[in-house]
UniProtKB/TrEMBL annotation:
Protein name according to UniProt: IS630 family transposase
Domain of life, source organism: Bacteria
Residue ranges of every copy of the Winged helix-turn helix domain listed in the record: 108-163
Region Disordered, annotated ranges: 67-86, 129-169
Organism: Jiella pacifica
């Protein structure tokens, strides 16, 4: 690669051996591209053989020269900012733990869609029901839910039924 010098503390054969042992395919192809360039291929040919373009190979050469083989690994990506703050997640957990009030909340059991609607109404943030499910799992809630009961059920009638049916005294 005329015009661009590659550090030579590792030979082309050593780089190829590292590429064979590398578990990450992207890093292995970068190692092979550098090995090809060190063994005399043109920058264009070395890059094409590794599945990249010449400019990309140049960028990886700079990273390799600065940080060695560890510079060829992908850098960690940032995580998106959470949609709900800690306080909002705590309020959501409290609401789920307390359970819905049919008169106030309009539902007899919390579903992820009902919770997404509650979040939109309370915090003004639109969320997908799968995102709500992810937040609930992260906070220790499982997918299981209690057996539904009708909000206007009569406890005395249920007790009489348990004792012997509808004809019990």
């Amino acid at each position: 690669m005329p015009g661009l010098i590659i550090r030579d503390d590792l030979s082309a054969d050593q780089l190829r051996a590292l590429a064979r042992r590398e578990r990450n395919g992207r890093t292995a192809s970068r190692l092979l591209a550098l090995a090809n360039a060190l063994s005399g291929m043109s920058r264009t040919e070395a890059a094409k053989a590794a599945g990249m373009d010449r400019q990309t190979l140049r960028d990886w050469v700079h990273r390799y020269n600065d940080a060695g083989v560890s510079g060829l690994h992908d850098r960690p990506k940032g995580h998106p900012k959470p949609k709900l703050t800690e306080g909002e997640e705590a309020a959501l957990a409290n609401v789920v733990f307390r359970g819905p009030d049919p008169d106030k909340d309009g539902v007899s059991t919390w579903t992820t869609q009902a919770l997404a609607d509650w979040i939109a109404e309370r915090f003004g943030k639109r969320m997908n029901r799968r995102s709500v499910s992810r937040i609930l799992r992260r906070n220790g809630f499982s997918h299981q839910k209690a057996r539904p009961s009708h909000p206007q059920k009569d406890p005395k009638a249920g007790e009489a039924f348990q004792k012997g049916g509808s004809n019990a005294p």
